[in-house]
């Protein structure tokens, strides 16, 4: 039979500290495993990339749990994370002399960046930009820094297309939006003061996919886009670890 003195001699505090230490070590190891990703030796700012990937992973898991208990949709969590990391910082420098405004073309929302020196031109060189984000993330707000810099560096008219995204809108909604706007600009270039011989289609990731598909369609229909600027485009969906 255990006496009262024996019970009192059990090192309760010591056991609790050991458990806490074990939990801390486990969480640290798990965090390192989630943060660390093997990258090429010449990869720029690797820890910044790993840090952002870690929080994207955490938010994805939180979104998954929230979705399971009907608290919120995971896609909204991911979009919120995407916005606060890249979309809430807008570059606006009056010295760049850019006019920025939103409008709708064929019921599709776009953001237009127009260098002021183009005011006197009847036909403007134009870049039609399709943002990336796996067809479910990204918008004109999160890509504002990209399209702003694009207009400032090229001094061309930049049109950023706000196409419909999944899961609210299924394929081919995004392609339909981008295609309809592009064809409208080619067919009615004079109406929009666009030089039809100097139109570039640009996009990264999913946007690169859209830019390439629409470029091929334009060429088949007899149009001649100046070039297609594809930035790490999503050209296949079999292996996402290819260079």
Please tag this protein with its features.
243 residues; alpha/beta; Rossmann fold; 2 domains; 7 helices; 44% helix; 18% strand
**DSSP E strands, number:** 6
Which fold does the CATH topology of the largest domain refer to? Rossmann fold
Regarding quaternary structure, how should these chains be classified?
single chain
SSE order, one letter for each helix or strand: HHHHEEEHEHEHE
> Helix tally?
7
CATH class of the largest domain: Alpha Beta
Low-confidence stretches: none
CATH architecture title of the largest domain = 3-Layer(aba) Sandwich
How would you characterize this protein structure?
Helices cover 44% and strands 18% of the residues. It is of the alpha/beta class and 243 residues long. It is elongated and about 75 Å long. The termini are far apart. The model has no long low-confidence stretch (mean pLDDT 85).
């Amino acid at each position: 039979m255990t006496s009262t003195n024996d019970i009192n001699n059990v090192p309760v505090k010591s056991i609790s500290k050991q458990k806490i230490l074990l939990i801390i070590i486990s969480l640290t190891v798990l965090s390192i495993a989630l943060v660390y990703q093997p990258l090429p030796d010449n990869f720029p700012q690797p820890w910044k990339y790993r840090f952002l990937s870690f929080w994207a992973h955490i938010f994805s898991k939180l979104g998954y749990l929230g979705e399971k208990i009907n608290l919120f949709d995971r896609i909204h969590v991911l979009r919120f994370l995407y916005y606060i990391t890249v979309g809430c910082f807008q570059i606006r420098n009056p010295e760049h002399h850019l006019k920025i405004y939103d409008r709708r073309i064929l019921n599709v929302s776009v953001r237009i960046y127009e260098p002021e020196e183009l005011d006197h031109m009847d036909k403007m060189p134009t870049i039609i930009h399709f943002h990336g984000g796996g067809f479910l993330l990204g918008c004109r707000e999160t890509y504002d820094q990209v399209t702003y810099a694009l207009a400032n560096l090229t001094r061309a008219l930049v049109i950023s297309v706000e196409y419909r995204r999944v899961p609210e809108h299924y394929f081919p909604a995004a392609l339909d939006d981008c295609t309809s706007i592009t064809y409208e600009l080619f067919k009615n270039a004079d109406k929009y003061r666009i030089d039809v011989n100097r139109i570039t289609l640009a996009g990264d990731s999913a946007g690169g996919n859209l830019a390439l598909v629409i470029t091929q369609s334009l060429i088949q229909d007899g149009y001649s886009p100046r070039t297609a600027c594809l930035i790490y485009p999503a050209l296949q969906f079999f292996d996402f670890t290819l260079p």
